[in-house]
């Protein structure tokens, strides 16, 4: 009679046609893996489980599994070799190593393995103060191998150590015993094919790879939390809750009295700067616990408005650029609230800037042909004639500057060497661009085309992102998330779009602004915080759902904290 759970009462599983298996079973079913299913994959799975059990100290359970499944964990010679290494029986280990010789790969593998064994033997003799035995190993066993001579010389110097503590300190070695021999065995295993001996901790490696792939596929994994075996469940796939993603309106600020053109977090994540058509730049303090902003100070009197901002690498200074008709830039010290006005000619147009990575110099440019390098005192150090640029980014090498120009391209400029090279060529105007923290990827907002992702090293277009409405207004996008796996952009349809970097379709659209969204900034240190600014004069702070404040008004003196923003999740 078949049991209700699908198994026969005598313990044999039900056959696929619903009838119970024969009462006496099949010999292979009783004693091991069923003959028809004893595939290579099944055998390898059993071996992996066996290795895991053995590593966990369940040797008897492992032996029972191997016996019942008719599998073997390792080749008999390899198993003996392992035991002798772990016991420190170096003579027998060398003997069985010769037996394994025919199973090894490259010809020099046997020499490299023997060298590792003799190195351990030599160090253990030194720790035991058996100096003559150690000297014998060095002269008569290690040196004749004629392998890694530099290491042999280093090993000989350890004979001068006057104590065990000094020996362990100089060698960075764990000392005689289980720990160092396990490390040695892990190294030796790498020379043996997996059919002879499984690689170390193979099941753990596979499970970690699976978790890593799940993390990559998780469309909302934006934090730096390590997804590993010790803090993850294997019973369900990894999936970050949508509610934890920064797509919920936490705060709305209306301290600017005209269109807000630009926003940028300081590199240390503690401050935000916003620039507006109202001629003011506001510096905000960041509260990462509540994902909110509080007014720190207002930098006033930028004649034509503040269209572009750039923080110094140490977060102490801020450059303010104006729109096309602006011929000067403002270099502010944020703590002292003092500024230096930098200008060369009233005919100039200085609309974009970027700091060198050491923070001692910066580059400024504009579409009327100006491209300058200044120091912190406002002295012009160098210039490049005839380049009409609308975007600048300094690269990590400290020598190269990327600049987008009116010919729909991005070129690299090495001022010291007077070398320029084409990096990117688009078919439509480049309205703005930014580079990721690894200095490898560039994110471009292209007129009438939307957002494009380029590889700067391979100089190829990786992906075009869909959904955003991009005409001829300047919209600034951003990379985001702890590993910059996300992209966010404003749009002329009053929304903020967010994509996972590997997916051309948006994972969410954030609604709340009533006019074009000009710029989006993602906090580089606290990735749970996203900010957008708009022609509707507002600044919106986006965060996880649990950061939405309870019904109460809390903001700066003239700020509105109403949370009337919504989001649409684009991924089911």
TrEMBL record:
<protein>
    <recommendedName>
        <fullName>CTLH domain-containing protein</fullName>
    </recommendedName>
</protein>
<dbReference type="InterPro" id="IPR019775">
    <property type="entry name" value="WD40_repeat_CS"/>
</dbReference>
<keyword id="KW-0853">WD repeat</keyword>
<feature type="compositionally biased region" description="Low complexity">
    <location>
        <begin position="1"/>
        <end position="21"/>
    </location>
</feature>
<dbReference type="InterPro" id="IPR006595">
    <property type="entry name" value="CTLH_C"/>
</dbReference>
<feature type="repeat" description="WD">
    <location>
        <begin position="483"/>
        <end position="509"/>
    </location>
</feature>
<feature type="repeat" description="WD">
    <location>
        <begin position="253"/>
        <end position="294"/>
    </location>
</feature>
<dbReference type="InterPro" id="IPR051350">
    <property type="entry name" value="WD_repeat-ST_regulator"/>
</dbReference>
<dbReference type="InterPro" id="IPR020472">
    <property type="entry name" value="WD40_PAC1"/>
</dbReference>
<dbReference type="InterPro" id="IPR054532">
    <property type="entry name" value="TPL_SMU1_LisH-like"/>
</dbReference>
<dbReference type="InterPro" id="IPR006594">
    <property type="entry name" value="LisH"/>
</dbReference>
<keyword id="KW-0496">Mitochondrion</keyword>
<feature type="region of interest" description="Disordered">
    <location>
        <begin position="1"/>
        <end position="39"/>
    </location>
</feature>
<dbReference type="InterPro" id="IPR001680">
    <property type="entry name" value="WD40_rpt"/>
</dbReference>
<dbReference type="GO" id="GO:0043161">
    <property type="term" value="P:proteasome-mediated ubiquitin-dependent protein catabolic process"/>
</dbReference>
<feature type="repeat" description="WD">
    <location>
        <begin position="510"/>
        <end position="542"/>
    </location>
</feature>
<keyword id="KW-0677">Repeat</keyword>
<dbReference type="GO" id="GO:0005739">
    <property type="term" value="C:mitochondrion"/>
</dbReference>
<dbReference type="InterPro" id="IPR015943">
    <property type="entry name" value="WD40/YVTN_repeat-like_dom_sf"/>
</dbReference>
<dbReference type="Pfam" id="PF17814">
    <property type="entry name" value="LisH_TPL"/>
</dbReference>
<dbReference type="Pfam" id="PF00400">
    <property type="entry name" value="WD40"/>
</dbReference>
<dbReference type="GO" id="GO:0034657">
    <property type="term" value="C:GID complex"/>
</dbReference>
<keyword id="KW-0963">Cytoplasm</keyword>
<feature type="domain" description="CTLH">
    <location>
        <begin position="74"/>
        <end position="133"/>
    </location>
</feature>
<feature type="region of interest" description="Disordered">
    <location>
        <begin position="548"/>
        <end position="572"/>
    </location>
</feature>
<feature type="compositionally biased region" description="Low complexity">
    <location>
        <begin position="552"/>
        <end position="564"/>
    </location>
</feature>
<dbReference type="InterPro" id="IPR036322">
    <property type="entry name" value="WD40_repeat_dom_sf"/>
</dbReference>
């Amino acid at each position: 009679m078949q049991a209700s759970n699908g198994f026969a009462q005598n313990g044999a599983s039900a056959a696929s046609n619903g009838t119970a298996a024969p009462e006496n079973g099949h010999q292979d079913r009783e004693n091991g893996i069923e003959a028809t299913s004893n595939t290579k994959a099944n055998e390898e799975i059993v071996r992996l489980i066996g290795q895991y059990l053995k590593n966990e100290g369940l040797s008897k359970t492992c032996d029972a599994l191997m016996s019942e499944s008719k599998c073997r964990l390792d080749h008999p010679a390899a198993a003996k070799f392992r035991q002798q290494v772990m016991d420190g029986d170096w003579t027998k280990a060398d003997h069985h190593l010769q037996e394994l010789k025919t199973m090894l790969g490259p010809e020099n593998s046997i020499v490299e393995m023997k060298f590792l064994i003799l190195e351990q033997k030599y160090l253990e003799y030194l720790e035991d103060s058996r100096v003559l035995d150690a000297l014998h190993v060095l002269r008569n066993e290690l040196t004749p191998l004629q392998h890694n001579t530099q290491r042999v010389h280093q090993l000989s110097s350890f004979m001068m150590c006057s104590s065990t503590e000094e020996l362990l300190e100089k060698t960075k070695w764990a000392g005689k015993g289980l720990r160092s021999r396990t490390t040695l065995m892990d190294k030796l295993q790498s020379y043996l094919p997996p059919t002879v001996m499984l690689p170390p901790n193979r099941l753990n490696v596979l499970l970690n790879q699976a978790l890593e792939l799940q993390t990559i596929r998780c469309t909302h994994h934006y934090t730096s939390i390590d997804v590993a075996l010790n803090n993850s469940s294997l019973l369900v796939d990894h999936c970050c809750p949508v509610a934890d993603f920064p797509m919920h309106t936490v705060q709305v600020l209306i301290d600017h009295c005209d269109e807000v053109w630009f926003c940028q977090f300081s590199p240390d994540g503690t401050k935000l700067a916003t620039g507006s058509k109202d001629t003011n730049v506001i510096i905000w303090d960041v509260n990462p616990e509540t994902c909110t902003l509080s007014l720190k100070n207002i930098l006033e009197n930028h004649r034509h408005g503040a269209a572009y901002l750039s923080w110094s690498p140490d977060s102490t200074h801020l450059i303010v650029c104006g729109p096309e008709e602006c011929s000067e830039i403002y270099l502010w010290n944020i703590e002292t609230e003092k500024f230096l006005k930098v200008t060369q000619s009233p005919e100039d147009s200085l609309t974009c800037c970027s700091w060198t990575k050491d923070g001692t110099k910066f580059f400024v440019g504009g579409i009327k042909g100006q491209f300058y390098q200044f120091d912190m005192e406002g002295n012009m150090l160098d210039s490049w004639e005839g380049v009409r640029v609308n975007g600048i980014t300094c690269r990590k090498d400290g020598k190269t500057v990327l600049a987008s120009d009116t010919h729909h391209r991005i070129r690299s400029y090495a001022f010291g060497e007077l070398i320029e090279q084409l990096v990117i060529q688009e078919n439509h105007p480049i309205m703005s661009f930014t580079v990721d923290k690894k200095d490898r990827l560039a994110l471009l907002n292209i007129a009438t085309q939307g957002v494009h992702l380029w590889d700067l090293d391979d100089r190829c277009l990786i992906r075009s992102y869909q959904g955003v409405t991009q005409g001829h207004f300047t919209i600034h996008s951003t990379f985001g998330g702890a590993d910059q796996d996300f992209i966010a952009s404003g749009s002329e349809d009053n929304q903020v779009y967010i994509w996972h970097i590997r997916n051309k379709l948006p994972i969410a659209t954030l609604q709340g602004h009533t006019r074009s969204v000009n710029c989006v900034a993602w906090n580089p240190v606290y990735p749970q915080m996203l900010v957008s600014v708009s022609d509707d004069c507002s600044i919106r702070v986006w965060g996880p759902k649990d950061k939405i404040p309870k019904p109460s008004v809390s903001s700066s003196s003239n700020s509105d904290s109403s949370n009337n923003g919504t989001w649409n999740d684009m991924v089911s």
